[in-house]
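Section 3.1: Structural characterization of target chains.
Under the original work plan, the team committed to producing a structural model for every single-chain target entering the pipeline before any wet-lab resources were allocated. The record below documents one such target. The sequence was received from the expression subgroup and is listed exactly as submitted; it comprises 699 residues.
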Amino acid sequence: MNIKNSILLRVRLAFLFMLVFSVGIIYRIVVLQHVEGEEWVALADQITYKVRKVNATRGNIYSDNGSLLATSLPFYKVAFDPDIPSEKLYKSGLDTLSLLLSRFYKDHNKNWYKQKINDARIAKKRYLILNRKQINYQEKKEMSGWPIFKEGRLKGGVIFEKVDKRFRPFSNLSYRTIGYINEEEDGVVGLEFSFNKQLSGNDGEALYQKMAGGNWKPIYDGSEVRTEDGWDIQTTLDVNLQDVTESALLRSLEDHQADYGTAVVMEVATGEIKAMSSLSRNKNGSYFERYNYAVGRQGLTEPGSTFKLATMIALLEETNINLSDSIDTGNGEYKFYDNTVRDHHEGGYGTISIKQAFEQSSNIAMAKLVDKHFGLKPEKFLQYVDDLKLSQPLGFQLFGEGSPKIKRPSDKEWSGITLPWMAYGYGLELTPLQMLALYNAVANDGKMIRPIIVKSANKADQVKENYETVVLNNKICSEETLSKIRLMLEGVVERGTAVNIKNKHYSIAGKTGTSQILENGRYTRKYITSFAGYFPADNPKYSAIVLIKNPKGWRQYGSNVAAPVFKEVADNIYARDIQMHDAISRDVEPQYGFFPVVQAGNRHDLTLICNELGVSNHSSVEDNWVRAGIKANSLQWKATYDQENFVPNVLGMTLRDALFLLEKHGLQVKYEGFGRVKNQSLSVGKKINKGERIVIELS
């Protein structure tokens, strides 16, 4: 009995527990559905629906002549909502669609695609990625004409999701300068990053639904925020010159098996960078653009003898020394305290002039001169360095510019040898672009300007932001000093350390540089070689710098490693720029015979005279100044060379006509002899310098 009662009690308790539990479940269901229902539905929507960013189309990057350097091309991911097409449309087009998909992607047969789409339709799957491969715009247009797909997104269910990809028409040309930016926008590379704000535009927003497999399907419900495409940027880069510069630099690096090299070409008057290349060697021994050594922090190096330009400017401005003054450099070694300064020339240069010391790049001469005139006032020397804008970054447009490292007398590292070393480019670190800006200032009549690589940011044909040249120093030195400096820089190529790049077609001015590499606090037998200068020396149009680190072999100096790269680039520019060429003059031979001696002059005067004399004459040109030719039994007037800012052709003219025409162009004329012009001292087509003198010989 007791056992029976005990069992009944347990059953009743279990039943009561199940009843309470069931009531609790029913109560919770009622609460979820009718009390908390809206809250849970909203939460579910938050999980499966999300407003996501829609990337704007990135702007283009153009070269100086409008060639595309970087652009965004549209690609598409193809997805399908198999539940949208009507039954009739679906059945009539599925077989053909499956066949076309199979032929297009070439990864599965027709039946595989048909089965995949059917399974998704039966399962009411609203978002099916047909293939992971992205297609281009032309392929999208082709697919848009296929069965079912041609009905579009609303009736056919096809979804083309746009994905922009960055494309470089010139492949790896100027890769690091143009740069890139990754999806997280934390890449610090080139124009793409430095002008990301202008290029990126304004992103939009759209509602997406999370589908099975973690994919997100766009929901076009009219709440989308439209994107604003990025602006285009117009650079100063010359595609052809960039190619030439990279090729010349690469050949030298491969020839000398160097660690890395950089080269920059700049237009003197505007400061526009026409080419900028930096190549470094990887583990496989090949070279590629990995880092911009012309501008960046890793490009900071001891400039070596190219810094002697700044030294000579300070000396000429501060003292009364003359270039003809002599200085004893001894046997090539000179002690400053416990340190020995050496010249590269074995046995030394002995006693030479200051001009020769610069041309032959004597370290001893520069160190002795600076120690003598600035040893007791190093701050004064550093003031000249500051005035030449070598102690601060240039403020260049590319992000990541290196800051110069220049010691001061107040620094712990300053010692008695610091100033003499600094005189020939040791104990301080500068970027190649900073040194180029100084040499460009010498070429630009003393005006130092900040280099520029982007001219404007544009939207369509409308300029949104314009970037103009900034003058850093209106005059880096006096005219007298500037004249002496230019004379010495020309002498370096005419008879100094860079005589190997001298040529008869155009003149080069510049300075070689060779500095030892400091490793673990000690200078090694490894070198950084460089050459900085401008050309043509008599009328500078371009400046450039070449720097190559750690060349191997017996050629390890700026003259035979870096300077030849400079000349190869300069030769190419000279060959392409016709305005640099001196026209080849030809003596005009008078044509005797039936016609009077008529050579050249004012067309209206010559026509009047010939008409009075009854001489048949004709003209196919409207130019005021012409020369005569014979056609059949008459004279024919042909245009003579007469262009503004260039030397005209006055050969064969009378003195009166020649004087008028030459003085109209701003030339100072000196003449010798009588008759017509036989010779002129300035070649036809040469660019005129204001106030330039010309001598004409009459006969």
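The longest helix spans residues 2-35.
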